[in-house]
Amino acid sequence: MIQLHQVSKLYGSNIPALSDISLTIPKGEFVFVTGPSGAGKTTLLKLIFSSERPSQGEIVVDGVNIARIKQSAIPYFRRKIGVVFQDFKLINSKTVYDNVAFTLDIVGTQRKIVKKKVWQVLKWVGLLPKKDSYPPCLSGGEQQRVAIARAIINNPVLLLADEPTGNLDPDLALEIMKLLKAINARGTTIVIATHNQAMAQRFSDNIITLAHGQIQTNSQ
Amino acid sequence: MIHKILYCLKSSFQNLRNNLFLSFITTSTITITFIICLAFFLIVLNLSVFKENWVDRLQIIVYFNDSANAATIDKTRSELSAMVEVETITFVSRKEAMVLLQQSLQGQDGILEGLTENPLPASLEIKLKQEYLSVDGVENFVAGISGNEALQDIEYGQKWLQRFLTIFEAFRITSLSLGVCLILFTYFIISNTIKLMIFSRREEIEIMKLVGATSLFIKFPFWIEGIIQGFVGAGIALLFLYCTVNLFLTNHLVSLNFFLGAGNFIFINFSIAGIVLVLGALIGLAGSLFSMNSIDEFNV
Ligand SMILES: Nc1ncnc2c1ncn2[C@@H]1O[C@H](COP(=O)(O)OP(=O)(O)O)[C@@H](O)[C@H]1O
Ligand SMILES: [Mg+2]
After folding, report:
1. ipTM of this complex prediction, to 2 decimal places
2. Do residues A152 and A121 touch, judged by C-beta distance below 8 A?
3. Is the pTM of this model over 0.90?
4. Total domains present in chain A
5. Which CATH fold topology does B59-155 show?
6. What does the pLDDT look like over A129-173, one tens digit per residue?
7. Burial of B146 (0-12, 13-18, 19+ CB in 10 A)
8. Taking CA atoms, what residue in A is nearest to B216?
């Protein structure tokens, strides 16, 4: 699913955020990327999501070489991938329903199909009763579940989560991790970046540890 | 595809509603700008029509010296007739001039009683061919014949013409530079409003990019936005001018028409309105088109 070959990333300065990273994540895996703050976890996910371009090396995601992807092809590439962030990134002026439906609206899906799919996914994450609420009225755990619903409504082949439980209490974090596990069970490859080593070890054997932009250990 | 377009349009109007105050300020600024521009444009347009009409009816009258005898007059007349510019030429003898004067003084011809001899000179009334009927054409013609010894004076309303032309030029240049300034101003206002709107929606735009919205899909509502602002601003300006002129100047319009001759006063008509609306929309579109950098710069 994901292959990186000798990838480096420099942000302006001479100190690379990532240097000489090579790794392979097969389809259907549930992988953690861990390491201390500033290790380069977010940068790695950004490269995979084509938010940033690598300074060096090749990145192939689901058969697409995104080191050389055309700017205009990026939106279409992203529709195959779901993303979840620590700060949820929901639109506060839209309802839960509209936040999730948004992903389908922008690709021109018919209203009837949008409705059916949004109901399905909200039901699946257990938020159907809150579909008309606005994000600020929800708990952090609920907001993250909305974000996850939005990320998976297109049945992505890959789900990237950057510190998805960073803002949540331990019990809510647990709930979110279980949800991600369930998504993985449906066949979606999942990559989670977290500085929480203990949680990573609890939920997966596949852990890539970064430090100073380099791979320290890769237990895949 | 239809769904997508509908969604886009919906979000353009949502944009307008969410930024109601901003839109209001922008649109009224554009309206005022267009009112000023249009007013000047209409004045210049009418002055130029007036100029055309006037020149069209222009006659050149050459007066002979008192000493000029019949032979000299005949010679001059045939010389002038032979000139390429001349269409018709009419001789008015001293006697005829007197008769005309008496006719025009009907009932008051007592004024002329004390006269022992006819003071009026003989003259030629010259009408130029259509292609020479321009300010330059007339002046060139006059310059060409002014050396003639037999002629005492050449009359074609030159003082008026000069004064009118000066005013006309001043108006034309003022309105032209004003027009250019105000178009730039409108462009600048719209472009800044769009930038503010983009800024106020940057989080939403960021999320749109995250979930795979194409650049076109994100930008389209802002283009529509710019077009609407330019169009509405121009539209209100047209309406305002139309109502103002019709309410307050109707009586004056009649005399103005008379002054300009043959009902030639040009006011806002369909083609002018059409052009102004299209211009407004185009400036709006340009204003938003070139404000899209900030969207591309949101790096997600
Ligand atoms: N946009 C950026 N511009 C400049 N430097 C950056 C940028 N993003 C991250 N960095 C730097 O790259 C390094 C890795 O950052 P990041 O990938 O965010 O680490 P992590 O997510 O593991 O905390 C850090 O030193 C950070 O300061
Ligand atoms: Mg990070």
Report:
1. 0.88
2. yes
3. no
4. 1
5. Alpha-Beta Plaits (3.30.70)
6. 999 999 988 999 999 999 999 999 999 999 999 999 998 898 899
7. exposed
8. A72
